[in-house]
Every structure is written in C-alpha cells, then in structure tokens.
Amino acid sequence: MKKKVITPAKIVKMVQEELELPDLKVKNRSRDVVQGRLIYYKLAKRFCRYASLSKIGKAVNRDHATVIYGLSKYDQEVKYDPYMNDVYDALYNKLDPIAQLPGRGTYADMTIERLLKRLTNIEDKLNKLELT
Description:
This protein is an all-alpha fold. The protein has one domain: DnaA protein, C-terminal DNA-binding domain (Chromosomal Replication Initiator Protein Dnaa, Chain: A, Orthogonal Bundle), CATH 1.10.1750.10. It contains six helices and no strands.
C-alpha cells in the first residue's frame, strides 16, 4: 500500500467521526469538543508532514498558541481520562499504516546494504578530496 501525506482536514474528519462530533471548529468549550480538539492536535503534530502549528490550528479555527497549549493540556488530561488515550490509539492505528511520516520520503526503502554502499561512496569522495 502506498503511503499518503495526511492533511489536517483529514484528521479533523476522522476525529469527528470517531467521537461522533458534528464539528471541531465550533466556538464551544464543552468537554467532548475540547477533548476532540486535543486529540486532533496530537495526531496532526505527529502525522501532518509539513503542516505548521498555524496550519494545524487553522483547520479548527484556532491559532498556533492554542495548539501549543492544547498539546501540553493533552498530556495533563490523559492522566485523568484514559478514554482520550484509547481514542488517540485507535486513530493512530488507522493512520500509521497509510501515513507518510516526515523524513521518510526519500530513504523509506533504505536497506543496510544501500546504506553501506552510500557510506563507501562518501568515504571515496572524502579520500579524493584529501589527496588534492
């Protein structure tokens, strides 16, 4: 299966479906919506390839500072509500097999043999530089 770049909008949709929420963008502080946003922030930070915190926040009508606060708040909330971790794990397990994570694109199929060959080529180039 080919890995895909995951967008913040896709994660918002998945969280809304998993938690049966109508909208994470709503200006509402009810517990279920807030928890949904916290889970979204954590997943988006992990899986959105090149999304800045501003882009992650914009998907739910929030700014980057709210995302930073939400990420720290997630860690506090999870201690008291293990259900959040269960939802996070369920969504993580759905995304992980299909998501192309940051940094994996170019050398995703790198094997030990290919790595050793690259190192040998680099050593040869360095040796040639030292000789000149």
